[in-house]
Amino acid sequence: MRRIWVAFRLFFLALFKGGFAQRIDEVLALPPAAEPAPPQLEKPKSTPAPAPPAKPVRSEALTLLAALQREARFVDFIQEDLTGYTDAQIAAAVRDVHSQCRKVLERMFALRPACSQAEGQPIEVPAGFDPARFHLTGRVDGVPPFRGRVVHPGWEATRCELPVWTGSTAAARVVAPVEVEIQ
Question: Which pLDDT score, from 0 to 100, does residue 2 have?
Fold first, then answer.
């Protein structure tokens, strides 16, 4: 399938970009590469041990979401329809969810500001800056270094320690298990 995609791309590049067509001609004129000889396989002297069964795989995003639900009831709070509650009731619930979510994030990621300057403080963005580290807004023209003010200091994880998934493959997408009270 990938080769078909490459062929289509090459066709249209050659059709619309003359310089590219010339480069394709040059590559096609090269002698074909020699294929390596297949390796000589020896007969195994003993039967190899069977491979251990593959461990169930789970998305790290689901692991984080499950921890936030387990320890802070985050998913319950977000999924709740809040239209029937007063602002005071919502505020009381938010305090607990906020506090517990913060503890989870601190334990797993130890988040710290990505720069030492506070909001509103001047900052210089160096030449060759990493756009994943600096998000520039406003009048961005010219060449770096850029001078501006911090709108948000960003966040940086000083560690990433997610729990290791030990459940089954069937439960890998479960964020919170069904709770059943036996009577």
Answer: 60
* DSSP state at residue 126: P
Contact 20, 13 (CB under 8 A): yes
65 and 149 both lie in a single domain: yes
3-state secondary structure of 113: strand
11-49 residue pLDDT tens: 556 655 666 666 776 666 677 766 666 777 766 677 788
Provide the domain count of the chain: 2
pTM for the model: 0.63
Boundaries of domain holding 115: 60-126+144-157
What torsion, rounded to 10 degrees, do the Cα atoms 85, 90, 91, 96 define? Answer: 140
Mean predicted confidence (pLDDT) in 76-93: 93
- Rounded distance, CA 10 to CA 21, Å? 9
62 three-class SS: helix
Q: Are residues 78 and 121 in the same domain?
A: yes
